[in-house]
Write a structure and sequence with these properties.
Elements lengths: L3 H30 L2 H23 L10 H17 L2 H19 L3
Helix pairs in contact: 3-4
Amino acid sequence: MPDASYAIAAVVVTAAVTWALRALPFAALAPLRESGTVQYLSTRMPAGVMLILVVYCLRDLPLTQPRALAPVVAVAVTVGLHLWRRNALLSILGGTAVHVILSSTVFAP
């Protein structure tokens, strides 16, 4: 069994490393807020990420089969809802609901 000074030193070092790792993002965040690159990315990245997700989800879609219509309709509903209401939560929930309903009823295997 290690002696008390070794255990105390281990706890102090662990606490210091944990505190530093938790404080580091806040220290690095302040200079990044004034960065033009970060401001540009903050306006452009959400659309880019959504585009990548759509491509990833639809890349293996068998377009020759009727069941491919469910995700295509769901994407159209999602885009339509978002253009109409400009509410991301409503768009995502609406598109998801349409996809689940179509996949489990109309296009069920």
